[in-house]
Task: structure prediction
Amino acid sequence: MFNASLLYRSAKLNHTFITFLDKCKSVSELKQIHALAIALGHSQKDSFASRVLSFTATSGFCDVDYAYRVFLQLSNPTTFNWNTIIRVFSISKNPNKAISVFLEMLRNGVEYDHLTFPFVVKASARFSKLRLGVSIHGLILKTGGDISLGREVFDLMPERDVVSWSSLIDGYVKDDEHAEALAVFEKMKVAGPKANEVTMVSVLCACAHLGALEQGRAMNRYMKENGLPITLPLRTSLVDMYAKCGAIEEALVVFRGAGTKETDALIWNAMIGGLATHGFVRKSLDMFTEMQIAGISPDEITYLCLLSACAHGGLVNEAWHFFESLKKCGMIPKREHYACMVDVLARAGHLTEAYYFLCQMPMEPTASMLGALLSGCMNHRRLDLAEIVGKKLIELEPDHDGRYVGLSNAYAVGKRWDEARIMREAMERRGVKKSPGCSFVEIFGALHRFIAHDKTHPKSEQIYLMLNLTVRQMKIDADTETQEYCSYDVKDM
Result:
């Protein structure tokens, strides 16, 4: 069970320190509070360190060096934290550092927002470098807050080049409108210029997310027919697409098509992750060994893929080895790594160990971590712990339908029908509705979306006719097998 008193004391101490910070009036006072937090082992709490960073960066007593040191201590800086430190450097004597930090933010895969760019632009404006300003402006245009408005502007353009088509496609991909991205690409093939590397990377990403294997294969043919060079980014996108669509052999063919010296960590990650996702656990670990022999340095994503493989294969000892190796290589585990470790332990039934691991993390447990623990509790029938975790999840995400359903299911498994009913009623009172799950089916290159009891498809009548016929046939086969088994059993008596 969760150590409630431990969590309570930690939360109370955190609240006390934050109260002190809110009343702080100088950098010297701040440093005294910070020193006390370090002495009590509380300085690693991201919520506290984030407040310290904000004070040193935005108060009238700004201390750039101190702010940067605090920033570097954050185990998982948020977008807000990155924006804060970029802002500090943008107005400092060294605005070049703001650009460096921004580039580091991009390399770490951190999502920037509409508040990031004003500080970056402010820093770049202090340089007399036209190319830098143009590059940042292009990035803003490519990644700005509204795809609908972008489409309106695109439709009004009298002429559209490959850059405008690619920008629109990439915008839909970043907005998770993958089917629309593919639809735009089809229009581009008819009306627009030939696609370039940027276009195809976005299109292959859309195919990967949709699991649209046939369309992905068509994109591969398009590149060959149009003589598009298979650069490393394109090869990586192809491997990722084939792997995510389950075509592991095709992914390996594309992967092996590159010489060892022509690869980087990204393409190895795509292959290792693809193998792990589809249950080829040992092959994914062997691939990592091959990566090391090839002299390719692993990154944080590599270890995330390896931990995922261990979760699928129930390899607890190997998971601990990779988690420790991550730190030995000088990398700081992120939330995703901690979540993967919880998943490994929970799936393997090491629920007490998973609980202690959560308690000792340098950050508060996220919903995904608790969700993995809840799933393990359900699978291994630790219903006492499942109840505590389920309640914590509802506290964290009171508007998430799955949290109520998860706890209700835990009560139902334990035959606590009254509590299960109360959970459903609490969900209804709050106005939370269960979102229906959906499935995509690709038939002859076309994607079809379905939800339970869906009748909106134009061929729903034929689909249900075939479905009912299949169910009846399965029932007949099952009855026949039962009869054969019974007659065999009787004759043997």
Remarks:
- The two ends are 51 Å apart (CA to CA).
- The chain is about 70% helix and 0% strand.
